[in-house]
Design brief:
mainly alpha; 0% strand; 94 residues
Length: 94
């Protein structure tokens, strides 16, 4: 499915069962899946009008940024979301 989770072997996934209270979604409450760019001095220096976005992304990851897909997969592995939600939220990153 295009999800590289950094583990091999069997993974236990979660699928929401749903109920009347959650309108069949299987989600109780909400959890955010985020991609946050820490704005360091190095990032400031390379952020200019015609910045190479790949250079910017590489530097951000080097400085510890967790991208949207990685954040979603971590939450899936922790049981906080489902693989369907990971795919829905990160579909454009395939």
């Amino acid at each position: 499915m295009g999800l590289h989770v950094g583990r091999s072997g069997k993974l236990d996934g979660f699928r929401g069962r749903g109920c009347q209270r959650c309108r069949g979604t299987g989600y109780k409450g909400r959890t955010g899946i985020h991609e946050v760019l820490p704005y360091s001095e190095t990032i400031k220096k390379i952020t200019v009008k015609n910045t190479d976005l790949e250079l910017l992304r590489a530097q951000a990851i080097k400085e510890g940024m967790v991208n949207l897909r990685e954040n979603a997969i971590r939450k899936f592995l922790d049981g906080a979301t489902t693989y369907q939600e990971v795919l829905r939220v990160t579909w454009e990153q395939f």
